Amino acid sequence: MPYSTEFLLSAYRTMKTIREFEERCVKEFEGGNIPGFTHVSNGQEAIAVAACIDLSDKDIIGSTHRGHGHCIAKGCDVGGMMKEIMGRATGLCKGKGGSMHIADIDKGMLGANAIVGGGPPLVNGAALAAKTLGTKNVALSFNGDGSANQGTVFEAMNLAVVLKLPHVFVYENNGYAEGTAANYGVGSNSLTDRNAGFGMPAECVDGLDFFATYEVLKTATERARNGGGPTAIEAMCVRFDGHFIGDPQLYRGKDEIKNARKNQDCLKIFRERVIAEGWLKAAAMNAIDKEVMVEIETAVVDALAAPHPDPATDLMSDVYCSY
Amino acid sequence: MTNHSNNPTIGGKTSMKTIREAINDALREEMRRDPTVIILGEEVSGGAGCDGEDDAYGGVFGVTKGLMPEFGRERVIDTPISEAAIIGAAAGAANNGLRPVAELMFFDFIGVSFDQIFNQAAKFRYMFGGKSKTPMVIRGTVGGGWRAGAQHSSMLHSIVTHVAGLKVVMPANAYDAKGLMVQAIRDDDPVIFLEHKVMYDIACEVPDEQYSIPFGEASFPRQGNDVTIVAISNMVTHAITVADILAEEGIGCDVIDPRTVSPLDHEAILESVEVTGRLVIIDEGNPRCGLATDIAGIVAEHGFYSLKAPILTVTAPHTPVPFAPELEDAYLPNAEKLMVAVREVLAAGRSGA
Lengths: 323, 353
Description:
Chain A is α/β, with parallel strands linked by helices. Chain A has helices at residues 5-30, 45-52, 68-73, 78-85, 119-133, 151-162, 182-185, 191-196, 210-225, 256-263, 266-276, 282-305, 311-314; strands spanning 60-62, 139-144, 167-173, 176-177, 180-181, 202-206, 231-236. Chain A is globular and about 50 Å long.
């Protein structure tokens, strides 16, 4: 067996946690318990987990506005996240960040980022710090097929190559930049060919296949850790929900989402594979399913009961270290 | 007369230094003291990948000259012309154990990097619930007078002063430049450090040892009881000129140089106006939503009953910076324009308190 049981159970548990967290966010949003805009990543779980499962808290990731899955995969506390998304004082960021700005520096999570393309230049900085301080840590940025067209991302890729930074660029290509198709917005038609043009190894992988994605990312991460510089990985995937919760998704084809949930579900694909290979038993994963449901239920109940921030003390704090 | 003193005397040896040399000193000594301090930007050394001389520029104004030969290219990093990538790398590195000093060759280039400044670096700490710190410095050259045209001459301090989460520093002499740069590097928040490009060769006595000047404390290059003049950066030069001329006429100008515009020393300005009752603000920025109107607003709100005359402002007009010498000279505030305003405010309004 090429993977340890512990590894497989951990991967499954994290993917399932993301799935249930996101599905529950939709429900809580629709129930009026989540203010603002929320973008969920259900359907894309395999990439987040494949990218983060081997990383330590000292390795840094930068995320996107669709960042819940990346946070969970990087080890952020699910309860703290739910509180944050509901704007509570005991949330991961004291309710000052929200869904689009969740961060947890202690876990090496440099933040979701509500500016499309905002993250990669910053993740270069984390990589530069690792290189300068000689820590052997790596940095990894999540991007979408949308941010792939931002100038900041081009600049970040070029600088990463010039300075040979330990930065893995992950492109989650779910086919849609908000409501515009990637095959319209990416002029070159191939992100991977374009990424290779920056002078770094670039590969495209089936992001629904956890194992294939894990293997290419493992190679990329090891290359970065060993001083080999940046890599760009494009992972093809499917977004089960809209750009934001409540998006009517009129731009998507008839039955597209229904078919995706049936035939392009990375969790189902994972289960079928590990059972077929004889690596895990269905019962073990069913047990995890039950535990995850309890964990998410607890996170929601606790978050709904959590205190709201107090404007008298919380509005003006945390702007500066000193002023 | 206000109670604030001028720069405290630092013991030990001093040397005549230009602003350029003073900033270079501050950077060099901080880099020697703290291995996490790095410099990055375009041509901060110069010559990367070229066949000719290393350290060919030391920054286009020569401010970082000699640092790469001492600290190496790993700590004095020449970057591609990619301002968003420069600022982003500095901000990300600052969150991960370094104290980067990033250079924007001309501060006008915030246009292509502003997202990384105001949406990212400035907001990290707040968005992350106080968990992060971003100890970075962004150095940039500002101001007109070099016939450099509209895209290399702007005075954009008001734009960054507007942004919560940033500190904004604008030294007007070599002594302040060194002490404020040391503070900027040691500070745990993102600091915008704006250097006026016509001032680099202006010299004064500067202590050889390292010292820091706290942010938010104004200095008082001239003191007097008749009129308050608030000036920043190169405008301090004009304020001193006017104050010295009027001193010969027996008129005392209280010249206040805030040195940092975020945080701003409100108290120094309000206390001075309480004594003088008359206020002129000179600012090289454009007039709308600028530093001059900001200070005028603060005094109108908190010092209204001290005023004996309307507050006057002397600023650039509401235009881009022009190229032709006649036009740029007409654009820039100067001592003559300030003198007209000061005499007007002295003549206007109620006499006596």
